[in-house]
TrEMBL record:
<dbReference type="InterPro" id="IPR050289">
    <property type="entry name" value="TorD/DmsD_chaperones"/>
</dbReference>
<dbReference type="InterPro" id="IPR020945">
    <property type="entry name" value="DMSO/NO3_reduct_chaperone"/>
</dbReference>
<dbReference type="InterPro" id="IPR036411">
    <property type="entry name" value="TorD-like_sf"/>
</dbReference>
<protein>
    <submittedName>
        <fullName>Molecular chaperone TorD</fullName>
    </submittedName>
</protein>
<dbReference type="Pfam" id="PF02613">
    <property type="entry name" value="Nitrate_red_del"/>
</dbReference>
<keyword id="KW-0143">Chaperone</keyword>
Length: 225
């Protein structure tokens, strides 16, 4: 990326990062806790996903359709699915998709392993802290997605300050985190979530998350490299 940011490039990058940050924030909230009526309504009414990838845009629209006109019965059904798929609250033999990087990247398949320590170090370096009311560890998918949203905000702040070096650092941090953390387990997680939820919302959500991350790493790489 050139150190000289023109006005047009700056505005384009601000839009790029703001749009991506909004998607990451939405996805993070979906994995953080059960859906409530207000969030379901906000997600359903969010602007269409801006993407040259038709399948990706359609995947986002499908999620919005799933959440459109949610009633109490729908929200209860989603809550049951959330707890069954991500926390194993159901039959012992049921398929599960535990949303922790360590589970998918450690040889023992346990929580709070090397990935947990690594992301904590990264968060500290970027002055990021997870929501103190969220009880799950730092390598939970919701937290990793929230970190990406924060890195997008950092890039926007640097762009508005006309600090090219800080912009490049923020975008490079996004690229590294995608490659080193999110993309080294999201494919296996998505397969498990799809099996656990069948054709339900959370199976669709995991499939979209994987597709979005795979597309986003290419988009960021085009800017940085």
């Amino acid at each position: 990326m050139s150190e000289n940011l023109t006005c047009e490039l700056t505005e384009n990058l601000i839009e790029f990062c703001e749009n991506r940050g909004s998607v990451y924030a939405l996805l993070s909230r979906c994995y953080e806790k059960e859906l409530d009526a207000a969030f379901a309504s906000d997600f359903a009414a969010a602007p269409a996903l801006l993407s040259d990838d038709k399948a990706l845009a359609e995947g986002f629209a499908l999620l919005q359709s799933d959440l459109s006109n949610c009633g109490e019965d729908d929200l209860e059904r989603f809550a049951v699915s959330f707890n069954r798929v991500f926390f194993g609250m159901g039959p012992r033999t049921a398929q599960k998709a535990f949303p922790y990087e360590s589970v998918y990247t450690s040889s023992s398949g346990l929580m709070m392993q090397d990935a947990y320590a690594q992301v904590r170090t990264l968060y500290h370096a970027m002055r990021f802290a997870k929501n103190p009311d969220f009880p799950e560890p730092e390598d939970h998918l919701a937290v990793e997605l929230a970190f990406m949203a924060r890195l997008c905000d950092v890039a926007v702040e640097a762009l508005r300050a006309d600090d090219a070096a800080a912009v490049e650092a923020a975008l490079s941090a996004q690229l590294s985190f995608l490659r080193d953390h999110l993309l080294n387990w999201i494919d296996r997680f998505a397969v498990d979530a799809k099996k656990a939820d069948g054709g339900g919302f959370y199976g669709d959500l995991a499939a979209f998350t994987q597709a979005y991350l795979e597309g986003d790493v290419d988009a960021v790489a085009e800017v940085v490299e």
